[in-house]
């Protein structure tokens, strides 16, 4: 009897109630992400260009501004996850004039938007505005995931536009090793009819994109993720980190239909970009025309963009100052995981600092 | 010097270790499974069947909605899409104008600076 009483003490009930409250909060609320103060300085259709409020005086700031370009099917808030654990906050604190191009969520009216539109209509205009606000003709550009495809195309098509430093993170550029790329197998033309999907939906629905990303590691994503939370429910630091990441992971957006089609047909199936065969706006994308200083960050345990997809560009670009930085970690973990602030961010910052004045 | 570790007092520790080991084995098996041609073929077939089965329904809904909206003197989806596309084109033109305006302002500023500098030089020469 005494044992039963001690097992169901008031303290036990209090802890159980707290656990339930935490679980309820995590599943019914969104964590406040993307909190670093910023100003909207340009818009076009759904795209928005933000400038993060500098915290370092103008004299101490690096001269060359940094433009961040994220993927098209997720929100860019992963770059500014939460105060104290934000790449944007870190770079602003280190004296960079940081800008973010947020693509927004395409509607059905944007189904015909192609990589051509993003790289030749949207990016040059946003960059013009950024240069005008920053008062600097040169700039650095960081592209992550599909954002790295966009920045690579831009750098190759507009090498005289003032791009001094190009940073690529987990860049899916080479699709030749089909055995190592799970997505390549899934979207093989024998199994996946991209036109039928786009005829039905117009844009690529976020639910299908999310399924694709999670199905690469189904047990970890659908079960392990929640078990990790359960094991750490009494650790507020882990809980808040989980909440922020879960908010971001489940906030996917559609991808413009025509862009998705290019991604599948020209890249996953045709591997045109790395072979200098990609045609954008009627022009061939020749990677040897990229002359900007290049930092290529590769995640060694990346299951979405395996290293084989990112490394070969080092041999293709015309840049003389180039570095391949291999880092342990996954596709998102290298920039938003617990070790990002100790390993990835300082390396990027040090590389950029030497080339930003 | 060896360090003696106390046996864990958590009665669930052994169960948790076993669970994690099972999960790891399961996760590895599933990763291998989703990387097979058979999985790619199966998901492709599932998606294709869904799209084929729902196509007639989607078509009927679209036709009906278009008729209902037209009869009610309301804009259809295509009308709204057309309007949104025109708005984006307008935004592009506005952005072009903005760029030109910025260029003109910059040129005026530069010319003003140049003329001030040449006036100052002329005054100093006198």
Q: Helix coverage percent of residues of chain A?
A: 40-55%
CATH class of chain A: Alpha Beta
By secondary-structure content and strand pairing, the structural class of chain B works out as: mainly alpha
Say how many strands of chain B there are: 0
Overall outline of chain A? globular
Order of helices and strands of chain B: HHH
- Based on Cα principal axes, name the global outline of chain B: flat
- The CATH architecture of chain A comes to 3-Layer(aba) Sandwich
Radius of gyration of chain B: 36 Å
Strand order of the largest sheet of chain A: 1-2-4-3-5-6-9-10
Largest interface: A-B, 32 and 32 residues
Largest sheet of chain A: 8 strands, mixed
Helix content of chain B: over 70%
Mean pLDDT over the full residue set of chain B: 88
* Low-confidence runs of at least 5 consecutive residues of chain B: none
Low-confidence stretches of chain A: none
Sheet with the most strands of chain B? none
Polypeptide structure, described:
The complex is a heterodimer of chains A (357) and B (126). Chain A is α/β, with parallel strands linked by helices and 357 residues long. Chain A has a single domain, classed as Rossmann fold. Chain A is built from 15 helices and ten strands. Chain A has helices spanning 2-7, 10-28, 87-93, 115-134, 146-157, 182-186, 194-201, 206-215, 218-231, 236-249, 257-269, 307-310, 313-316, 333-336, 344-353; strands at 38-44, 47-52, 66-69, 98-102, 139-144, 163-169, 279-280, 283-284, 293-299, 322-327. The longest helix of chain A has 20 residues, at 115-134. The model of chain A has no long low-confidence stretch (mean pLDDT 93). By secondary structure, chain B is an all-alpha fold. Chain B is built from three helices and no strands. Chain B starts with 12 loop residues before the first helix and ends with a helix.
